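User: Could you write out the 3D structure of this protein bound to uracil? I've included everything you need below.
Assistant: Certainly. Input first, then the structure.
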Amino acid sequence: GGRMPCLRQARALGRRKGMVNGCHASPEAYKPAGAAQARKGRCPAFGRRGLRGKGKARRMGVMRPGTCTGTAPQAGQKKEGAAVRLDKFTAKALGLSRSEARAAIRAGQIWMDGAVCRAPDARVPEGAAVSHAGRLLCAKEFVYIMLDKPKGVVSAAEDERDTTVVDLVRGEYPRRSLFPAGRLDKTSTGFVLLTDDGPFAHDILAPGRHVEKVYSVLLDTPLTQEMISGFEAGVCLADGSRMLPALARPGAQGPCSAEVVLRQGVYHQIKRMFGVYGAGVRELRRTAIGGLALDAALGPGGFRELSPAEVARILGG
Ligand code: URA
């Protein structure tokens, strides 16, 4: 109905991205590094045994309204606060606001372990099957998006004048507070990682972490051995600051092309490093972060969510 446009959006997204209602269709559990994974405890209404022993209601595949009440934890339950509430879970999984999620739950649209659950404060036990319109839901704590940044787009969450990298994906993630984990210049293109996982972004950007980033560069002059050796030794920029050793090697597109690998992220770093040798940068494209290469199938402005294995590869190198 007209009340929840986001619900349709979320389902459409699921179809487009090969996901089920925002849930990775792969059997692999979604456990990003650093995410709060503890969803301990049990559904107060169903417990670990689900609907066993609930007779007719179970056979019919429905529960009477009000049977799932979200009452106090049962004895033996570890820490009640660790299990996520159904309204929070539903909101995350369907991209709804908390009040929209509550309305959907009260309207009987959300099922838990085979029965309608109308209690927004019910706890979702680990491994519970929560579904909507016949599809299993999966509430991810964080999302990780690979974007192929086009020229002219700025690496920021918001900007008054220019389109930002977050603007490009916002329509599909209306409730997420996404930001770019690392920047590319407005004129540069390629791999930008968008996430709402602050600690993860901090990790990959931390100077001491030295996550490698690979760039494909087109110069206005041929790449020289002097540049290659200078990069390897650590270029001293015009302002006197010395860069960490970096790799420069001939690129695949002729004598003016180069591939550069950096382990730090200083403002305009590659342009300034080549500038020391009097070389100008015509094109700059980031092709990999850590051990993860940009998906060539995306194309300018294209984006997709990363699988857990891909997220791990970024830090794994
Ligand atoms: N170095 C630059 O000069 N620009 C970028 O966008 C990235 C690295």
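Residues 14 and 20 are 5 Å apart (CA to CA).
User: Perfect, thank you.
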